[in-house]
Amino acid sequence: MSIPSDNSRVIRLDARDNVVVAPSEIPAGTVIVSEGITTLHKVPLGHKIATRFIQKGQPILKYNTVIGFAGEDTAPGSWMHSHNILFDNFVRDYAFSQNYHPTDYLPVDRRATFQGFVRANGKVGTRNYIGVFVVGNCGATVARKIADYFTEERLAEYGNVDGVVPFVHELGCGMEMTGEPMDLLRRTLAGYVRNPNTAAALVIALGCERNNIHGFFEQMDLVESDTLRKLVIQDTGGTRKTIEKGIEQVYAMLPKANAHIRETVSAEHICIGMQCGGSDGFSGLSANPSLGAAVDILVRHGGTAILSETTEIFGVEHTLTARAVTPAVGQKLVDRINWWLKYNEGRDTQINGRVSPGNNAGGLANVLEKSLGGAKKGGNAPLMEVYEYAQAVTVHGLVFMDTPGLDPVSATGQIAGGANLITFTTGRGSCFGSVPSPCIKLASNTPMFTRMEEDMDINCGVVIDGEKTIAEMGQIIFDKILRVASGEESKSEALGVGENEFVPWPIGVLA
Length: 511
Description:
Layout: E1 19-21, E2 31-32, E3 37-38, E4 48-50, E5 59-62, E6 65-70, E7 79-80, E8 85-86, E9 113-118, E10 124-125, E11 129-134, H1 140-149, E12 163-167, H2 180-194, E13 198-205, H3 213-219, E14 228-232, H4 233-236, H5 239-258, E15 262-266, E16 271-276, H6 287-300, E17 304-307, H7 318-321, H8 327-343, H9 357-361, H10 367-374, E18 383-387, E19 397-401, H11 407-417, E20 421-426, E21 439-443, H12 446-451, E22 458-459, H13 461-464, H14 470-485, H15 491-494
Parallel strand pairs: 11-12, 11-13, 13-14, 16-17, 16-20, 17-19, 18-19, 20-21, 21-22
Antiparallel strand pairs: 1-4, 2-3, 4-7, 5-6, 6-8, 9-10, 9-15
Helix pairs in contact: 1-5, 2-11, 6-14
């Protein structure tokens, strides 16, 4: 990638590309010396400029990858965006496993370490929470009031406990009692209960939900213990009595949770979920590839990274299938893409071309271009496995989890799968946070980082500014991951963001 200097005001990503990217707003009539062209229109920052004549119907290439097709004969210097870049499907060679290369792991004694909470099953947490869960919406108020009772003052003597958090949602009743939606909900709830960042859990039910609490425990092989309790409001005697009983049960679990202390463990126990939201034209140039560089480092240290948001890798899935560990793993990804295409037939959704207004204003012409940038979060590591939503992630390395593109729903699936930390890239700006797994937010450009510095953890815009390389930013992000995993507070944690971002996937509603 060429970084703009005094005599060049554009970013070229590949010598074979027929467009370049504007690192700042470029007026019409500006001479781009490095490309030998003059801009014919004003080009907003993060948007693209044609560098040679492109005939109508010819592919538009960015990172030497197709992001659409010219909607008209286009002269060099033209502003290239959704008005003249047409979205269309095209044949992709999945090249299953043809580019697979085994990871060059670091020797165990040379791997990075962090300070984590080691659980009885060998998993390691980056945080130490007690969760108050509901099997259905009807228990939400009781769960919130139980959790809210445990203020900082009341938890002061339990210094190793990060908090008591309610996990409430709108599902669990008014839905099929069996089938994929119920299985998915139960898998998500059980995944949070089992997440290594959850030291203990209390599960609340009204008592007559379709997601029956006893059936939920039985199906998910959950067994009550001194760190896993359940309460049924109808059996306990109503709202007030259940709140009192719930507070009593949390108090009983607090000493158990507090007994966990941080100890030195290998970075192989870090499992990050990767998200991007409020993307712009720089996301795929700075924040996403920088995170990808950090992922490559993490994987070499034995750790795990979960790439998701299936609708936002559509069009570039062949770059992942080509480096899948086996053709069967690659086919799993194609199968999930095909499921989404069928699910979205005839609907005005992203996989059918149009990105959100914010993405579009930030310089992304369509889903192909957005996907190209989004996939950069996965770095160059081999794809080791593909999981369905909220399935337990058991394989180390780069893996993929099928989720919608909506960030809270996607991150919820990743945390249910075992992610003990979330990384979130953004170009337009995001206020996302998550519990029990802390969220590190990465800004793609310096102006947004400056505006929203209270919400952003790292400024990857210095790549665009020419101050850091992708490799240097990757190391910075990896070091930050180790510090946050060891207990350093992320910006979203400092702001108290995360409780409302627990959103299990309501199949049939989201696209």
